[in-house]
Amino acid sequence: xxxxxxxxxxxxxxxxxxxxxxxxxxxxxxxxxxxxxxxxxxxxxxxxxxxxxxxxxxxxxxxxxxxxxxxxxxxxxxxxxxxxxxxxxxxxxxxxxxxxxxxxxxxxxxxxxxxxxxxxxxxxxxxxxxxxxxxxxxxxxxxxxxxxxxxxxxxxxxxxxxxxxxxxxxxxxxxxxxxxxxxxxxxxxxxxxxxxxxxxxxxxxxxxxxxxxxxxxxxxxxxxxxxxxxxxxxxxxxxxxxxxxxxxxxxxxxxxxxxxxxxxxxxxxxxxxxxxxxxxxxxxxxxxxxxxxxxxxxxxxxxxxxxxxxxxxxxxxxxxxxxxxxxxxxxxxxxxxxxxxxxxxxxxxxxxxxxxxxxxxxxxxxxxxxxxxxxxxxxxxxxxxxxxxxxxxxxxxxxxxxxxxxxxxxxxxxxxxxxxxxxxxxxxxxxxxxxxxxxxxxxxxxxxxxxxxxxxxxxxxxxxxxxxxxxxxxxxxxxxxxxxxxxxxxxxxxxxxxxxxxxxxxxxxxxxxxxxxxxxxxxxxxxxxxxxxxxxxxxxxxxxxxxxxxxxxxxxxxxxxxxxxxxxxxxxxxxxxxxxxxxxxxxxxxxxxxxxxxxxxxxxxxxxxxxxxxxxxxxxxxxxxxxxxxxxxxxxxxxxxxxxxx
Length: 646
Prior knowledge:
24% helix; alpha/beta; 42 strands
């Protein structure tokens, strides 16, 4: 197989060779005269010259209208040792190796020429048999009855160098040379030569004489040199032999559009997880990003003209061009050869045009039919999001139905028209705000607001600004809410005294991280105390016995290393906690918690470092912080009513 790199290198070498080849223009009364003139100017034998006919000559009538032949001639490419095969055949190593490996016996050839009797012996190939001296002598005596140099014949057979060697003189009678005729068929696409046997003293036809005869009789192109060489070595008389074949025109390939995405919407690409196919990952959405190349055009190819054996040019057709049709949010490159996305979204082909849609619409539920959704834009779900599935979007997510035990993740807003029922494992993350009818047993994190109409039940909520519950049943019951600025609802807690922890006045994520570090610090301190206790016991034993037993000494060394590691971890946590504490104390957030209705016992109010465990029922109050204490004041309406944005 020829690689693309090999082909490129070969074409480059050929182009360079063609560029450097000397070309001359020659004229003559006949084509043969023009070739002789070219041979003189180039200083090369005729058989080493290639040429193109620029203007075909004419004998005219009674000397009138006579026109000379005009050609462009240049040195032919070098041949390699195999007859008729170009040196550039080395480009195809597989084929060359195959040809070289074929088994073929040696061949003996004899020619009777004006220069004398010529003998050639070709070597065998592969496991073929060599030509013997007896075989060569028999070949000679069959055609030449005279005397020849036997010792020279022996040398030719021995060396078998595939070159003609003169072994005897020959009385050449030119008038008895073989007669040749030409037959041009197949619409001038094939040229045949017919050789008639020579008479007594006639010479065998040569390559040059055959080519010259063909050229003088209208065959000027498409010579099959290997076949002519074969005819020179082994003349066949009385039968037409194909010696020239025209080249048919090749129509150029039409321009093609190559898409960088799957255009067949019926194809489903499943992914594997831990050796199992995940039927939730259907990859039905073809996400693209701004600036991404969506399609490229392969330009049309120029057609290749053909040529008859008589030199007539056969015109071809160039491939047809086409344009890349683009629609919404897609532009063409300056040269028109590429289609480029102008925004993030889903690439689709509509009415033959490439479009990028910023909104992906799920017409029903997100389930096994749709698989998980991952989209670089806004996702609109007409139905529900079933348990176990996820929807992730670079824009907003809007769900007309409800959300179950699943994951929602959006860089913008998340809007759920019914409610979020996480069943303790569902998680909702968004870069801006969450809007929902209710949130129950869910984990919700919002970059700005969490706004609900019916309430929040037993959920973990983190919001960088506010949590607002506005509605007839707007209550916060159970769970843990961490909010930077404000928590406002109709009811906080419940008659049953459900533990409801409400924190404001901090960066909620930093506060959550501080709490995690504090819990880890306590755990490490406990482990350190246990290690110190065990070390103390071993040290007391060492004081009594002077030397610890081998197993005890190993345990002692292990505990010592463990204590050093724990001390390092504790010290690192202390420094991290101190940095976070300083950061939280410097924040200028005041923070407040309000209830327009009732605050039930069981609610824990935390405003910065001030803590209040509600023991008594309150009505229409707002909790604020004064002097590290939580103070109860008259209810304050939220400064902005975000519920109207839903």
